[in-house]
Amino acid sequence: MSTNKEDLFKNVISHAKEYGFVFPSSEIYDGLSAVYDYGQLGAELKNNIKTYWWKAMVQMNENIVGIDSAIFMHPKIWKASGHVDGFNDPMIDNKDSKKRYRADNLLEDRITKYERDGKTDKAKQLEADLESCLKNDDLAGLRQLIIDHEIVCPVSGTRNWTDVRQFNLMFSTQFGSIAEDAEAVYLRPETAQGIFVNFLNVQKSGRMKIPFGIAQIGKAFRNEVIARQFIMRMREFEQMEMQFFVRPGTEMEWYQHWKEARLKWHLALGTDPSKYRYHDHAKLAHYANAAVDIEFEFPFGFKEVEGIHSRTDFDLKQHQEYSGKKLQFFDPEINQNYVPYVIETSIGLDRMFLLTLCNAYQEEDLSEGDKTDSRTVLKLHPSLAPVKAAVLPLTKKDGLPEKAREIMNMMKLDFNMQYDEKDAIGKRYRRQDAIGTPFCITVDYESLENNTVTIRHRDSMQQERVSVDQLERIIGDLVSWKNLLS
Ligand code: GAP
C-alpha cells in the first residue's frame, strides 16, 4: 500500500476524527477556525503525554517542581515581558486572493524548494538574506525578497503583494463588570510568565537552591493569522514549559544539558532518530542569547515541536523593574545576591500529540498469496496508548462474557480498558489496532478450564497464553513508565 505524504496526512486527520481523537471545535456551527476539541481517546492520549512530560521533568528531577498558575495575569506583565511591543509576526497580503501569509514562512518555503531542486547556492543566499532582514526588523527588505524570488500567492497565483506589516498575536478581553471601568487583560500567549512572577514564591516556600526549575502545563492563546495544518498551529493550545534558574555564567552548560535531555525524552519513545533534528534560530527572540528548536519530520516536512531557549536574566530583570520588587537569589556558595539566568524548555502539547499520531499511524498490507488483507494501526508506545488492553470474549455465550467481565473488573481501576463482544474476533482486533490498543486479552473456552487467556500483541500480532493470575503484573510491566524513564 503506498500513500503519498499529502494523502497520508489527510488520512491521519480523518482517522483522528473517526476514532474520537480530535474534532473541529463547534462543528455543528461549521467550526471555529484553528480551534479543536479532543475526543474520548484524544483526551486520554493527551493526558498520557502530559504525564510522561511531568514525570520526566518534575518527578524525576529533585530540583524541579511544578505549578499551575492562572491564565489571567496583571496586564503589566505583558508590557514587562515585551509581548505588548514585540510579540508580532511579519505579515503580507495578496491583493487578489485577499489571503494573508507570514512573510518569513513564504521565504522559508522557497528555501526548501531551492534545496529540493538542488539549487544549494540560491538556498544559502536566500537563507542569509532572510536572516539579515529578520535580525534588523527590515520589513521592506522582506517584501523585496518575496518580489525578487518571484513568490506567487498559492491561491491567486499572482505577485500582487501589499507591504509587510507587523501583527500582534495576543488576545485581549475585559476584566471587571462594568464596560467603562473594565481593564483590558490578555489571555496569556505563553505559560512561562506565570512561572517568572512566581519565582520568589516558589523559591522561598520550597526552599529551593539554585540551580532549580519550575515547570507547568497549561493553556496559551495566540491570535495566529495563519492557522493551518490541523492542530499544528492553533489559536488555543497547551504548552508544557520549564524554566530552569541558574547562576549567571553557567547558562551555556545548562543550555547544552537541556538541549540533549529534551531530545532524549523524545527518542525514548522509540521514534526513528532520523525523524528528528535540531534547528538553531536565525532570529533570536527578544529575550534569548541562544535558542534551538527540536524539529520533527511531519508528513508536511520538518517543523518545530519544542524550543530550548537561554533567556538570560531578561524576564526576571524586567519584572523587577516593572513591579518594583526584588527578584533575586542569595547564593550561599559564593556569598552573593543575583538575578538568576534562565534556561527554558517549551514544548507544545498539541504539537507533541500530532507528532505522536503521525508517527504511530500506519497502513499495513497484510496480503498473503492470493488473499488480500490490510489494517490501519496506531503503533503508539504502550505507556502513551489511550486504551491499555481490551478484553474480548471469543463468543457471546457459554459463560465467556462473564469470565471476561471478571477480568475487566479486576483490571479497570489500574488500567484504561475496553470490553468488546460485538462482531468476529478478527474485526475486534482491527478496531483495537486502529485506536492503538497494545494488548488484546482474549477469553476462550480454555480460559474456563484452566484460568488462562491469550494476550495478542498489536505490533507483532503474535499471541501468548498466560495465567489470569499473572495478567495484572504482565500488563503492568508492559505499560509501565519505567520502560521510558528509568
Ligand atoms: N515560552 C516560549 C515560547 O512560548 P514558542 O516557540 O513561541 O516559545 C513554544 O512556543 C512551543 O509552543 C512551540 O515549540 C510549539 O510546540 C508550541 N506552539 C507555539 N505556538 C503554537 C500554536 N499556535 N499552536 C500550537 N502550538 C504552538
Number of domains: 3
Main β-sheet description: 7 strands, mixed
State the fourth-level CATH superfamily of the largest domain: Bira Bifunctional Protein, Domain 2
| Ligands and ions found | glycyl-adenosine-5'-phosphate
Q: Would you identify the regions where 5 or more consecutive residues have pLDDT less than 50?
A: none
In total, the number of strands is 23
Beta-strand level of the residues, as a percent range? 25-35%
Bin the helical content: 25-40%
Label the structural class: alpha+beta
Describe it for me?
Strand 14 and strand 15 form a beta hairpin. The chain is 36% helix and 26% strand. By secondary structure, it is α+β, with helices and mostly antiparallel strands. The site of glycyl-adenosine-5'-phosphate has 19 residues, from strand 10, strand 13, strand 16 and helix 12.
Essential attributes:
486 residues; alpha+beta; BirA Bifunctional Protein, domain 2; Herpes Virus-1; Rossmann fold; 7-stranded mixed beta sheet; 5-stranded mixed beta sheet; 23 strands; 26% strand; globular; binds glycyl-adenosine-5'-phosphate
Helix-strand blueprint:
Layout: H1 5-18, E1 22-24, E2 36-38, H2 40-59, E3 64-67, H3 76-80, H4 83-86, E4 88-93, E5 100-102, H5 103-116, H6 120-135, H7 139-148, E6 165-168, E7 172-175, E8 183-186, H8 192-196, H9 199-205, E9 212-221, E10 236-246, H10 251-267, E11 276-280, E12 290-298, E13 301-312, H11 314-323, E14 329-331, E15 336-338, E16 341-348, H12 349-360, E17 361-365, E18 374-378, E19 389-393, H13 400-411, E20 417-419, H14 425-435, E21 439-443, H15 445-450, E22 452-457, E23 463-467, H16 471-479, H17 482-485
Parallel strand pairs: 3-9, 19-20, 19-21
Antiparallel strand pairs: 1-2, 4-5, 4-6, 7-8, 9-10, 10-16, 11-12, 12-13, 13-16, 14-15, 17-18, 21-22, 22-23
Helix pairs in contact: 2-12, 5-6, 5-7, 6-7
Bound molecules: glycyl-adenosine-5'-phosphate.
